[in-house]
Amino acid sequence: MTESFDFKGRHIIDTEDFSTAEILHLVETADRIQEMGENALQIAKGKILATLFWEPSTRTRLSFEAAMFKLGGNVLGFSEASTTSSAKGETLADTIKTVALYADIMAMRHPLEGSALAATRYSDRPIINGGDGAHLHPSQTLGDIYTLVKERGSLDGLKIGFLGDLLFGRTIHTLVRLLSRFDVEMHFFSPEGLNIPDYVRNSLQAKGAVFTESEDMNGQLANLDVLYVTRIQKERFFSEEEYLRKKNSYRVDRELLEKAKKDILILHPLPRNEEIAQDVDDLPNAGYFRQADYGMQMRMALISKCLGLM
Amino acid sequence: MKGKEPMRIERINNGIVIDHITAGKGIEILKLFPTEILRTKIDYASYIDSPRMGMKDIIKIENVDVNHEWLLKVALLAPDLTISVIRDAKVEEKINPTLPEVIEGIITCRNPKCVTVKETYLTSLFRVARQENGKLRQQCQFCEHIFHS
């Protein structure tokens, strides 16, 4: 058993706001909830989660909503800005103040960076950041940590590769900063111009993290325990040509995996395009759908802890 | 003015003298003043020789006072500068603007995707630090983007 922590009323904006012991406690809480089986349906009975999604995201929103339903709670919210008062010019502050009257907890995704932190200034209800622009995505990160622990038993000594759009890929930014607290090696592979942003690199250097950066995986693939792949996000590019050029620059398929460790774990935050071939799905190495399930289980832990129910 | 005879700048009786401005930054400092304040006599010399700095800018403005907000802004642009407040042709006060670690308001985030840029009622929040190379590192506490000046 790890040390227990009270999260009641806390916001989940950035994993950097939490100690390593608190994060390990969340991992243990996720396990405890799963062990409860059907009894978990009593945990959040009568509570309401608002999912406020100004930006399209089927997966993260459904994951939050499924998590709340599995805890026995209820859900309300919106899934795109055009159907909200924002389209009529309402400020973020006013939306948050209003929803805080209706819901016990909120999960939000917003295209502007820093929006979740800004929202906490106007809410006495816990807010979980479901992604603020290309900035942070802590619930994904915590789900990824949970995935690594469940799949590998521990984070210690893992050699993890990150492949794809590492500039706009917010899941990567949050995850690598958190991983830098643990005894892991990180190797970043990205097409030119899509490498990790300065503030992430600076943060890793300041923490003394072990990491390398290159455009291809040659020489490193055979050493990796985990390969975390990300999608090139079309919506982040100004031109179609630029998007297509970057998109087609890498692909994980069975042929490539022959050069990797036999038990390499392939992760992806989903949705994917063509960066992982579909024939990889049948391999035991394909951990990305299990990752989506672990992500939901971690969201159950986050909702329960922030509401003070666990 | 680069490489020529030092520019002659007339003494003023009342106003401020902003000296030791990083060469070339003077024009940006002038832009910080509200237009109505600039309807006065201003001497501005750019890239003049300085034993201490090599090159520097200097500005004299008549009949104007300094305020805290303005001091923070100029210190961000040119951290080495000094300001002399002149009253009745005498230096009444010498000010070396100092930067706090955290600046609320005053600076606008240059990341167009930062929430503080679109939701303008939010007060910006920056952590500021002087780097070894003398440049200032400013980090927005909302979007975490880092800027240097």
What does this protein look like?
The complex is a heterodimer of chains A (310) and B (149). Chain A has 310 residues and is an alpha/beta fold. Chain A folds into 2 domains: 134 residues, Rossmann fold, CATH 3.40.50.1370; 154 residues, Aspartate/ornithine carbamoyltransferase (Rossmann fold). Chain A has a 5-stranded parallel beta sheet with strand order 7-6-5-8-9. In chain A, strands 2-1-3-4 form a 4-stranded parallel beta sheet, with helices on both faces. In chain A, α1 crosses α10. Chain A is globular. The model of chain A has no long low-confidence stretch (mean pLDDT 93). Chain B has 149 residues and is mainly β. Chain B has 2 domains: 91 residues, Aspartate carbamoyltransferase regulatory subunit, N-terminal domain (Alpha-Beta Plaits, 2-Layer Sandwich); 47 residues, Aspartate carbamoyltransferase regulatory subunit, C-terminal domain (SH3 type barrels). Chain B is 13% helix and 37% strand. Chain B is built from 3 helices and 9 strands; from the N terminus they run βαββαβββαβββ. Chain B has a 5-stranded antiparallel beta sheet with strand order 2-3-1-4-5. Chain B is globular. The two termini of chain B are 24 Å apart. Classes of the chains: A alpha/beta (310), B mainly beta (149).
